[in-house]
Amino acid sequence: MKFRILHNKRVYNKDDINSNIQSHINYFQNIGIKKDQHIAINSENSLQYVFSIFALIEIGAIIIPINTRYSNQQIKASISKFSIDLIISNIELDNEQEYFNFPKYDSSLDPEQDYIEILQNPSTVLKEQITNVILSSGSTGEPKGVVHNYNNHFSHAGSSNTFYEFSTKDSWLLSLPLFHVGGFSILFKCLLANASLNIPVKLNDMADEIINTNTNCFSFVFTQYQRLIKNPNVINKLKTSKVILLGGSAIPESLITFSIDNDLPIRTSYGMSEMSSQIATSKYPLNIDSSSSQVALPNVEIIISDKKEILVKGEMLFKGYYTNRTLLKELTINGFFATGDIGEYSEDNGLKITGRIDNMFISGGENIHPENIERIISKTREIDKCLVVPKTNSEFGHIVSCVIKTSSHFDIKKFHLKLIEKLSKYEKPKRYYQYPEIEEGIKLDRKKVIQLVNDDLLTELLY
Question: Is the separation of the CB atoms in 45 and 178 below 8 Å?
């Protein structure tokens, strides 16, 4: 079988895809898009978005997917910072920003070339071509422009497909937004494996897509997954899947236990934009005896520095950070990239992520690593979400504060007494707060929660 796209109960075969890529190329060239121009795409996932990505790659333009949660002010800042020449959008922008909509579908054109063949068997020139700039918030909150060439995505897809034995008989759901590297990578997995790419009609309502199609491979952040498995029909379908990949942030213990109890073949994953998505993943679906450690994908090199920072290298490693058409690459000696993540090797030689260097804070002279405390808290079944954050304090500099969301009646006093038995004296939470009802993206916004805690805008849970 050849690469195909499933969308809205229709199958787009290779001929359909080539014709639509041709129609998108014609449209983009007619509005003046040329090689090496910076083209922003501001849209929810759609069939046209996917065709546009393939068409812009063929033209040689540089794609800059815009986070659909960005305000007009953030979009304006991105236009300036990343030298954007033109915006393609199906979301209305303010009057100061000129943009073009997507072209309509057209499967009637005779394509000038077999574009899928070109994308699946890239020339050396195509491999070295800058494909995109992913806007990653990173640790500062200001978006970093993470630059990939075609070979970064191609190499990552090859490693990922080998790891899962993903092949032409399989189908992957485009369940992550295309402005996120995880969504972008799904296109290349399916393209390289000659597999089916399933594009949901609505990204925020995927239950019907899961239940009523033959899709067997999925990537979710835990907030998506948590919502979906409230539907018993989704659970029954996911039981038969080949891969359920969970990433984006720490997965609560209660969610892992629920998945194991319901025979859902989940695998946790560690990745980042700078490595074109995945770095390491659970070797097998988790079960009650599984280690929480992960193994590196094929062709990914990982070392842990003396400071316990994770360093990575591989063909999928990005080309650098991009600002004002200047490319900067931050590498250590021997070409490794310092991730900013803290890790260690487990007894079975798997990788365990234990924290972030930039999340650490000091309380009373002691270094506090929030993730260590969060891991212990998340083992409580009633906890759906938790973040440990610093609250400014005149005596200690900062005090440990815990923001939690619970799924049922919760005795905070009983929880606190059990928790402090498992923590050192300086790690004990001094304040508890109710988790805010905030709109969340791919990852929990730690900085936003820290601000809410320090502005005293959250409900305190007294114990």
Answer: yes
Using alpha carbons, select from 212, 244, 214 the residue that is nearest to residue 229.
244
360-454 CATH pick, 3.30.565.10, 3.30.70.250, 3.40.50.2300, 3.30.300.30 = 3.30.300.30
pLDDT per residue as tens digits for the range 26-81: 999 999 999 999 999 999 999 999 999 999 999 999 999 999 988 888 888 888 89
Residues of the chain with CATH 3.40.50.12780: 4-349
- The region of weakest confidence among 28-42, 221-235, 286-300, 305-319 is 286-300
Q: Can you identify the CATH homologous superfamily of domain 4-349?
A: ANL, N-terminal domain (3.40.50.12780)
Cβ burial, residue 248 (10 Å; 0-12/13-18/19+):
buried
Size of the chain in residues: 463
Q: What is the pLDDT of residues 187-234, one digit of tens each?
A: 999 999 999 999 999 887 899 999 999 999 999 988 889 889 999 999
Give the span between the Cα atoms of 62 and 40, in whole angstroms. 8
CA–CA separation, 384 vs 356, rounded Å? Answer: 21
